[in-house]
Every structure is written in C-alpha cells, then in structure tokens.
Amino acid sequence: MSTLSELVQQCRGIPSAALARVGRGLPTKGLGAAVLCYHDIGTDPTNHTDYYVSPDRFRSHLERIRSWGLTFVPLAEIADRLLASRDLDGLVAVTFDDALIGVQEYAAPILESLRVPATVFVVSGVLGIEPPFWPGAARTLTGAELHELTTSGLITLASHTCTHASLPDVTPDDRARELRDSSAAIAAMSGARVDLFAYPSGHHDLDTEQATAAAGYRAAFTFSFGRVTPTTDPFAIPRFCIGPDHDSFRLARQLARPISAWT
To answer: How far, in Å, CA of 81 to CA of 143, rounded?
Structure first.
C-alpha cells in the first residue's frame, strides 16, 4: 500500500500535464533529461505483448513532446553531457530495445519524417528470428536490415548483449563475453563504435555495472523510471518504458514530474 507521501509524489506533475493538454509547454529548468524506451511499433491485432505501440500513438508522442518545448537529441549526446557535467534540461532521447521488425517497418519512417534521432539496442546473437526471450513478439531484424536502418544517419545501434541474458545471473566469464562479443558484432554491422549499453530486462547490480565499464562501454541504461541529471550514475541511467496505454496526459505527467518525485 502506498504511503501518503508516496501518493503526493505520484501526483506531482499533474498540473503541468493538464496545462500541456491545452497547449502549454512543459517545465524544463532543473528537470534534467528524459530517455524514452520503446520496444515494438506495429498494427498487428494479434500481438498482445507488453510495450506494443501503434504507429499513430508513436507519432503522436513525438509530435507532442516537441510541441511541449522539449528537444530531441541522440542518446549519445545525453551520455556526452552527463559525463562532461553539462546542462541536460529539456532534452529527450528515443530508444528501442531488442531491434524488432516494427522499428524498421513503422518507427523508422516516422522518425525520418519528423527528423527525430533514435538508438536501437540490439541483441546481437538473436537476429532475424522470433526472440526466444519474448514469446509472442514479432521477429527481430536481420543484420542487413539493421545496417540499412543506420543509412539515414538518424538511427544508431547499441548493445543489448548477445542473448538477452540477465547479467547478474550468469557467471563472470559469460557476463564478460555477452558484453564484449555483442559490441564487436554490432560495430561490424554499423561500422561505428559501440559504447552504449542497455541491461536486458533492466537487471543490473554493482558487479554488472563494473563489468560493463570494464568491457569498454561509457554508459548503460536501466528500466528504472526517472530523470537524467548531473548526479546520475552513468552505469545506471533511468529510462521511461513506453507502452500502448501511454496516452499524452500520462506521458506529459512523467515528463513534468520533478526530480525529487522519482525514487
């Protein structure tokens, strides 16, 4: 059961979200940056997986975020600014986990039409097949399809391990291999350095964070909701997971909640 204090914190951001619905912008000063985590975009009525978002809703999210006075930037810029202790206020980055086919079929054309950059976290050993770690999900992209995604210059690739393993639950040697081999394979596909990482299922602990740094990554992302501020641990960067029930009001409320409201 939530305490009164927790309920009060959860309500913070509601006034700003209400004003956003009638055309007002969202506050940015002192709120840091936000990283959005999508998974698949599509129109298949038989796909009932979590985080399956329609193209119309995805486009609406991007258009509204921009109308609220926030600025889309590449995920790498969030990492750059965090590591350099530079201003993060008002910035938003878009990410996709698992590299599912809907990213190419539906998300990429919307991103290109709106000129919004995005990063796709790839499970390098699970390409072109239905993901064994997610029953019912659409297939993953092939290596050739992932390379094609990057040609617009708007979409970059990053690592999500080789097999989508829960890194705290594997041996140190397997953990190191998941981290090292995935970055090498994805760099070969994209022709670019891979130094950003997302923990599968958001699972991480201190050993995992240290192994991620030792493998050459400079930042890693979780599923913990919250804002990216100058004090954020670069190996535990929060993201907002976005699902089909994220209407504009819910999205605005999350983007407007002050840092102190996120535990």
So the answer is: 30
* Domain at 30-51+73-244, CATH from 3.20.20.140, 3.40.50.150, 3.20.20.370, 3.90.700.10: 3.20.20.370
In the chain, domain spans = 30-51+73-244
What are 46's two structure tokens? 């038989």
In tens, the pLDDT along 117-160 reads 999 999 999 999 999 999 999 999 999 999 999 998 999 999 99
Instruction: Say how far residue 35 (Cα) sits from the centre of its chain.
Output: 6
Tokens at 206, concatenated: 């201190």
* 23-68 pLDDT per residue, tens: 557 778 889 999 999 999 999 999 999 999 999 999 999 999 999 9
How far apart (Å, rounded) are the C-alpha atoms in residues 263 and 259?
A: 9
- Residues composing the chain: 263
CA–centroid distance for 38 within its chain: 6
Determine the Cα–Cα distance for residues 167 and 173; give it in Å rounded to an integer: 11
The enclosing H or E element of 245 equals none
Spatial neighbors of 214 by CB under 8 A, at least 6 apart, are 176
Tell me the C-alpha to C-alpha distance, in Å, between residue 155 and each of 81, 94, 108, 149: 19, 10, 8, 6
